[in-house]
Write a structure and sequence with these properties.
Mean pLDDT: 87
Structural class: alpha+beta
Helix content: 25-40%
Number of helices: 5
Protein name: GIY-YIG nuclease family protein
Distance between the termini: 33 Å
Order of helices and strands: HEHEHEHEH
Organism: Shiella aurantiaca
Shape: globular
Strand order of the largest sheet: 1-4-2-3
Radius of gyration: 18 Å
Length: 195
C-alpha cells in the first residue's frame, strides 16, 4: 500500500508542477471592478437586477472574445479597501459579527487584530463560478454559506472596494489553493482564515 501511496503522491506533485509551469511565464490577465457597497440593496437569497447590471455585467466582459465564460474558470480574487480607513472597516465588521441579530448568516472568519492597517479586506479563490461566490460575499445567497455579507454591514460605512479578479484555466482546480495561501501570507487580509 505504501508503494501505491508514494506513486499517487508523485503523480499529484508532477501534475501540480505542470499546472504551475503552464501559467508561470504568462502575464496574468486580471480585471478590477469597483464596488460601491451603498449600491448593495435588498440583501438575501436573490441577487437584485440592479446589482447584476452594475457589478456582474463588467465581470462577464473579462474575456469578451473568449468563448469560455468567466464562471468556468478557476479564479483568485482580492477585495481591496479604497475607503474608509481599514480600522473603521475592521470595527464595522467586528460589530456585525458580534450582533446577535446577524447570527443567522454565516460569516467569513473574523480574527483579532491589534492595529488593523491592511488595505486588503479579503482574499479568496474558486474552482469555478466566480460570479456566484462574489454574489454570496455581497450578501446574496444562502445564509449558511460563509461570506463577507457586505450588504448587511458595509453600507453603513459607505465602504468602497476594488475587486481584483485573476482568472486561470479550469484545469488549475485544486492547485489554486496554494496560490491563495501565498497571497494571504504576503498581503495579510483583515478578514479570513488563511494564514
Amino acid at each position: 500500500m505504501k508503494e501505491q501511496i508514494d506513486i499517487q503522491l508523485r503523480a499529484g506533485l508532477s501534475n501540480g508542477i505542470k499546472q504551475y509551469e503552464d501559467i508561470i511565464d504568462k502575464s496574468f490577465d486580471s480585471q478590477i471592478i469597483e464596488l460601491d457597497c451603498k449600491r448593495l440593496t435588498n440583501p438575501g437569497e436573490k441577487l437584485p437586477k440592479e446589482v447584476q447590471g452594475y457589478f456582474f455585467a463588467p465581470l462577464h466582459l473579462i474575456f469578451p472574445k473568449d468563448d469560455k465564460m468567466i464562471n468556468t474558470r478557476a479564479c483568485l480574487y482580492v477585495f481591496e479597501i479604497v475607503s474608509p480607513d481599514p480600522d473603521e472597516v475592521y470595527q464595522a465588521y467586528s460589530s456585525y459579527c458580534k450582533d446577535p441579530t446577524a447570527a443567522y448568516r454565516n460569516k467569513s472568519a473574523f480574527k483579532e487584530v491589534d492595529n488593523p492597517t491592511s488595505k486588503i479586506l479579503y482574499i479568496g479563490k474558486v474552482k469555478k463560478n466566480i460570479g456566484g461566490r462574489l454574489a454570496t460575499h455581497m450578501g446574496y445567497g444562502p445564509a449558511k454559506t460563509g461570506a463577507l455579507q457586505l450588504a448587511f454591514w458595509a453600507q453603513k460605512i459607505s465602504l468602497q472596494l476594488k475587486v481584483h479578479i485573476y482568472p486561470f484555466e479550469p484545469s488549475l482546480g485544486d492547485y489554486i489553493n496554494p496560490l491563495e495561501l501565498s497571497l494571504s501570507k504576503a498581503l495579510r487580509p483583515l478578514i479570513g482564515k488563511s494564514k
